[in-house]
What we know:
- The protein is mostly beta strands.
- It contains two helices and eleven strands; from the N terminus they run ββββββαββββαβ.
- Residues 8, 10-11, 13, 32, 34-35, 37 line the site of zinc ion.
Amino acid sequence: MSHEMRFCPSCATPLQWRSQQEDSGMKARLRCPACDWTHWGNPTPVLAAVVENDAEQVLLARNALWQEGMFGLITGFMEAGESPEAGICREVLEETGLRVKALRILGSWEFLRMNQVLIAYHVRVEGEVRLSPELVEYQWKSAQEARCWPSGTGYALAHWIRSKGLEPQFGAFRPNQSPEPDPAKWPPQYWAEDGRFMLPPAV
Ligand SMILES: [Zn+2]
C-alpha cells in the first residue's frame, strides 16, 4: 500500500502544491502554506546483500509475498542511527540467522518506481540458516548456476559473479520483464577480490 502525504507533520495544515525558487530554479512541491514545511520526498535507502558461504555459493531467498520460483537477494530498510554496513549485518542476521564475518560494497542503484536507492554489499557469513517469517524458502547457488535479473539487486549479483571470473547470465525476474541487462547500470569492470573486504561492525 502506498500512502500520500496530505497534512503538514509539523502543524497539521493541509499541504498544497506550490512553486518556489530553489537552487535548481522554480520547483513545485507539496508545501505547508502555514509554516512553510516542505515535503522533499527523498528516496528511501534500501540495503541488499549478496550472501556467500564458505562453499562459494550465494543465498537466494523467496519472500512470502512472491510467487513460487521467484528468488532474490536479502534486502531491508536502513534504520535511523545505524551505518549502511551495520544495517546490512543486522538484516542478514534477522532474516537468515547468519552472522556476517566480512563485507565489501558492490554498488548503489536507483529504484525509481518505489522512490528507493539500493545500496548493495557482498558479505561472507557463518552459521546455520534460520529464515525469518517474511521469507518462505531459500537456495544456495554457485556463481555458475545463479541467474541475474535486470534491476539493482540483479546487477549487484552480476558483480559478484564477475568477481568469480564468470560472465553473468541474465534471466527475467518477473514475467514480461526484459532480460536484457542495461550496460549503463552494470559497469562491467572486474573486482579485485582481495583487500576490499572489511570486518563488519557489531550489531
Ligand atoms: Zn505546517
